Predict the 3D structure of the following.
Amino acid sequence: MCERAGLLAELKHGAGCRIDEAAEKLHRLSQDIWSCPELAYDERKAHDRLVAFFSQEEEGWKVDSHFKLDTAFRATWGPGGGGEGDVVSVAFLCEYDALPGIGHACGHNLIAEVGAAAALGFKAAVEKSSKLPVRVTVLGTPAEEDGGGKIDLIREGAFDGLDVVFMAHPLQDDAPFLPHVAEHDVTVKYHGKASHASAYPWEGVNALDAAVLCYNNLSVLRQQIKPDWRIHGIIKHGGVKPNIIPAYTELEYYLRTPSRAELPVIKAKAEMCFRSAAMATGCEVEVEYARNAFDNILRNRTLEDLYEENGKALGMEFTTDEEVLTNASGSTDFGNVSFVVPGIHSYFYIGSKALSHTEEYTVAAGDQKAQFYTLRTAKALAMTALDVLLCPDLLQRVKDEFTEAKLKEDRLLKDGPTDNTKNA
Ligand SMILES: NCCC[C@H](NC(=O)CCN)C(=O)O
């Protein structure tokens, strides 16, 4: 029980009221982002809109536009220094990139809204009590769907000095945590030699054959990998004309394992598939891994329990469906954040059972119905941040749990997976 329970309850109420008061402009913010979907690292309008929100529509924030990345931003409130001494440095994260062809089918417009709303609520609550040593940061993090903007931002020091970070992602259910897998994306390029496919095919070196063999090698490999590992990809370039032996082909694959420690194993296995296809066809092969590999998420059960308690108080019904709770979903660059700062990446229902990355989900993410759930989630995040701020024991527990979980993962990474898959 927190010593300052009375004050805490009052501040939580204040945070909720502030979020309700700003409901209309928060909705406008997410609608503007939703109606103009932009891809990873190119979220210019979303960036400008969020920067305008914190510098023009809201008061008291110091805003850094183009913060370390062209389409990232930072808004801060409270004493400088971030995290030093007694100042607790709390951050809320916004995402706002969309998917090619289907717009905001992952609902990142709502992630931007929920991050902004939680920050507004939290700031308003702590502002009332001048004695609270806190610094609030909103980080606009581009390129979750492709590239991993948060990983670039970590590298640039954007997360230094933060004590705890909060974000929430829309889905079909409310859940304080869902497992995410580590991921490394790879592009494979085959270089062959063009020739007339009917007149002198023997003069050609067929790069499409290499791509097809590579695809098939990986499909066969899939039988021999663990059930929760994932290999999936596309042929991005498959040649230009049937009567020209393809001289160049390109595949893009995502390789995923539940833990970042297992990634090297799946990569080594996949690599043999890439190279053997080249050897069989006489092509040259180039294997290019993406600049950033995504980590799995490091859980923080202290934060999850607090979030769940606050969510329930607001009427959330958390899923108990074991399949949802245990099946690995996708990957997120928040995984990497969870290895440098303790944090929570919860999931929230938006009034629709549509599946993400579908056109139906795009519609749901722009629907008025999503607003109630989005703002309720923002309240639960702000309330959880208040718990951590007002009860120093909790913050210490959050940090201790983080340190212990990280040590365990670091050990796993150093020693490698314990089963025979490491012999690959
Ligand atoms: N190459 C990065 C893909 C990330 C993507 N993330 C999600 O779908 C989770 C929520 N945005 C993925 O395919 O897992």
Notes: Residues 1-180+295-412 form a domain with the Aminopeptidase fold (CATH 3.40.630.10).
